[in-house]
Each structure stands twice: as C-alpha cells, then as structure tokens.
Design goal:
Elements lengths: L17 H18 L4 E4 L2 H8 L14 E5 L5 E4 L3 H8 L8 E3 L14 H15 L7 E3 L4 H9 L4 E3 L1 H8 L4 H24 L6 H15 L3 E9 L20 E10 L2 E2 L2 E7 L4 H20 L6 H5 L21 E4 L6 E5 L16 E9 L6 E10 L4 E3 L9 E3 L4 E2 L2 E2 L18 E2 L2 E2 L10 E2 L2 E2 L8
Parallel strand pairs: 1-5, 3-4, 5-6, 10-16
Antiparallel strand pairs: 1-2, 2-3, 7-8, 8-9, 8-10, 11-12, 11-13, 13-14, 14-15, 17-18, 19-20, 21-22
Helix pairs in contact: 1-6, 4-5, 7-8
C-alpha cells in the first residue's frame, strides 16, 4: 500500500527511514557489482553518486561533471567532492567512513584549461586506488565521462567499460523507502494541479502557469523543479516540449508535464485541460488518449514485457507521423527514480527489438498523446505507478478520467453556457424553429438552417 506522510521528521510516527534507505541502496550496488565482471565503478553522474554515497551538493551541480566517486569490489565508496563540500560530508555524512570524503575536481565540462591537468589528476587518483586493491587489470565501469578524462584513464592503462548499464539495472527496482518518496513527490504535484486548475482562465500566460507550479512545489518542500512543460492552444499539435509566453484563450486545450524531485525522487506527470469549454474534437481526442493509456495500465503485471505493452499503442502513421523516431515519446513509458528517465523504456521505436521484462518494485510513468481532428488541438495524459504483485498502483491522483474544464462558467439568458462547444460562437447556434414576432424564419433563410457544410451543428440553443 502506498503511504503519504508529512514532509518533516517526527518522533511519534515511523515515516521514511533514511538510514534504511542509505543502507539498502548501497547494499544493492555492492551485490550487483559483485555479480558483474566489473572490478570497480567510477561515477560522475550526480544521481549515481547520490545512490552510492548518499550525498548531494544541490541541483546547481547536476550538469558540471565535477564530482566523482569510486566503488570497488568488496569495499566502501570513496567520494571526491567540490572543495569544502568534502569537509562538510566528512563531518555530517558519517556513513562514508574515515578518510573517504576527499576534495577532488574534474574538468567541469571542459571549463578547466587543459594545461591544469585536471583530467590526468582524476585518472591518477583512480589508478592509485585500483592498484592498492589489486584491480588495475580489471574492467572499470564508468557512467558518463568527458573525453579528456576517458583518454587519461586509458593512458594509465585502465580498461574503461560502460558502467551506466549496470547502474540502470541496479536502480530499476525500488526499495520501500524509494517508493514512498516517489509517492510523496506525486502528492506535491497533485496539489500543484489543484492550484493550476483554479488559476487557469483566458488571459493567463503559459509562463505564469509555470511560475505558479514552481511556487506551490517549492513551498511544499520540493528539492528541485526540473521543468514544467506548459502547452496551450495551437501549440498542442505538434507537441513542442517547451513552454512559452502564449496567452490562453477561450476554448483552448492546455496540457502540462510537471517534473520535480522530493529528496531526489522525481515525477513525470501530464494532465490536459480545456479553458472555459472544449469542442467535440477535443473531447474525442482526450477519450482516445485515455483509452490507449488505460489499455497499457491494464496490461502491466510482473512477467509481461515492454513489447507486450507497446503493441497496444498506435503506430506512428496512425496519428500523422512517418515513422516511430519522428513521434518518439508521444506514446511512451519510462522508469522514474532519482532521474526522470530510467529503465524500463516503453516505445515502439525500441521495445520490439529489445523488450524488457516488468518486475515487481519497478516505478515508471506511462504517457499517451492524441491529436484532435480539428488539426490544432490535442490531448496528453500521464500516470506514474509502482508495479505490485498482480498489477500496478497509480501514484498520480489528480482527476484525469475525463477532460476537465478550467475557468469561469458563463451564464446566459437560457442558462449555463455549455462546456462542450466550438470555440467559434456562430457554429454553436441552431436557428431552426426560432420565432420572431410570432413568425418563424423562412425555410429558405440562407446560412440559418442549423447546419455547417451540410452537417448539423454540435450544440443546440433553443429560444422562445
């Protein structure tokens, strides 16, 4: 059962056990490393460093590639950190052990001048540790590495192999506490969508919606808002994957993806709304988008593969794309943990050729998309879930079974203006049977026959 707690630590209730989390993550790495052919793991990826050493220095360092850690077979991790952070961790991260939090800086994505020999210094540090442990001739698994560091490691006689695949396989099954943290991260996004639903109306810019979501999440205790994908109106099809300052208008579709982390654990969580009202085309697109998502969710259970799931989704050509690469990530699934995109990956581009088996304890998000028949709007929905013994439990709880309409309801002389209507008012009126001064409209009244291009208009307005 998924549990949701407050974000503070308390003495009167057992919540997330961070000591258990630290021990379980490191134990899993050690076990999988022992089972592999790799002698040691060298990590520059901040998420892998956090998983192994249980340290972090903030989101500003995510893209610097400055910190690194080494985990050798049958040993404890060593962490080379950014300046004074090394001393801080030696004081406040006692699980690292004496002398295992050290100062050390890599090349900072090429910002360090080559003459400073930072790449060579990193390689020398690693060679010394491997020699002391008799592992210099064993493969060294590296997750992400800058070319100068790679070349320097090779110059030291080290056999560098891909360590990211091992780390992905290690992180794919979540511990009890990881699942709780992921669920709590989703709880925060539930709250953000509630505020967003109340806020949206004609005149609101996409960028203002992004600002509101950031405010809600950080006030609730988010560690990092990685992004808020805010898309509205004609920007919905094709999906641009970036927000703008576009102003929302009556009848616009608007969909969002909210990506943030709580204690390092992420969300990927789409919802679609209509501003004021939705057209029949938008409703139909939403229903189809929801159908494909639900079909995938219903198929998930331990033992099925990603190929079994993606075969339920439409081919690229069925929704306007020439091939699977051109619509990649529109019908998609991906693991979620310390990073937004982890294993397993669900995509018609790769899952048939390289299927991955679903296992209990995996946490991933499934997301679907469908363009509307009007040629400019679309629907996008995503649910994040944990795999249980016999299916899944969905973590994302903001309502999404039907297309929701945000913004003010409008009251007319005949009652509430329908929330399902065309964005252009003249397409919503049926003049058939309308009487003026006791006389009905003539049968041959041009353009007033209740039809558009020979088709009955979608909404009816009766007048007396």
């Amino acid at each position: 059962m998924l549990r949701t707690y407050g974000t503070m630590g308390v003495d009167w209730e057992q919540r997330v056990d961070f000591d258990r989390l630290r021990k379980a993550r490191l134990a899993r790495v050690k076990q999988k490393l022992k089972e592999s052919e790799i002698g040691a793991l060298l990590c520059f990826d901040m998420n892998n460093i956090r998983y192994i050493t249980n340290t972090t220095i903030g989101t500003w360092a995510i893209d610097k590639l400055g910190r690194f850690c080494l985990l050798a077979q049958d040993d404890e991790p060593i962490n080379w950190d950014f300046g004074s952070a090394a001393k801080h961790h030696s004081l406040y991260a006692p699980w690292l052990g004496e002398g295992r939090s050290r100062a050390g800086i890599s090349t900072l994505r090429g910002a360090m001048p080559p003459g400073a020999m930072r790449a060579e210094d990193v390689a020398r540090k690693i060679r010394i540790e491997l020699e002391e442990r008799g592992l210099l001739n064993e493969p060294l698994g590296v997750d992400v590495v800058e070319p100068p560091v790679l070349f320097a490691l090779q110059a030291e006689g080290i056999n560098v192999v891909d360590g990211q695949q091992l780390m992905q396989d290690i992180r794919v099954i979540k511990t009890e506490d990881e699942i709780t943290l992921l669920n709590m991260a989703c709880m925060m996004v539930d709250a953000a969508y509630e505020e967003l639903y109340r806020f949206m109306k004609p005149g609101v810019r996409e960028s203002e919606a992004v600002a509101l979501v950031n405010k809600v999440l950080y006030e609730l205790g988010s560690e990092h808002v990685e992004g808020v994908n805010a898309i509205s109106g004609e920007r919905c099809s094709p999906h641009p994957h970036i927000f703008s300052d576009r102003v929302m208008r009556p009848g616009d579709p608007a969909f969002y993806d909210i990506l943030h982390s709580y204690m390092g654990y992420r969300t990927c969580y789409y919802r679609t709304f209509a501003i004021g009202s939705a057209s029949q085309a938008q409703v139909d697109a939403y229903k189809r988008c929801r159908y494909y998502l639900d079909a995938a969710i219903d198929a998930i259970r331990p033992g099925v593969t990603t190929a079994d799931v993606v075969k339920l989704w439409p081919k690229a050509q069925e929704f306007g794309f020439p091939n699977e690469e051109s619509c990649f990530a529109l019908q998609y699934g991906h693991g979620v943990g310390l990073a937004i995109w982890e294993k397993p990956v669900f995509s018609r581009l790769v899952s048939f050729d390289s299927p991955q088996e679903i296992e209990e304890g995996m946490v991933f998000a499934l997301e679907t998309y469908w363009p509307a028949s009007d040629g400019w709007s679309a629907a996008r929905i995503e649910e994040q879930m944990v795999v249980t013994r016999d299916g899944v439990e969905v973590m994302t709880r903001f309502p999404a079974e039907e297309l929701m309409v945000a913004g003010k309801r409008y009251f007319t002389t005949e009652g509430w203006l329908p929330t399902m209507r065309d964005t252009q008012s003249h397409r919503n009126i049926d003049y058939t049977g309308v009487e003026y001064g006791g006389a009905g409209l003539p049968d041959d009244a041009p353009g007033l026959d209740g039809k558009v291009d020979g088709k009955v208009k979608p909404a009816k307005v009766q007048k007396k």
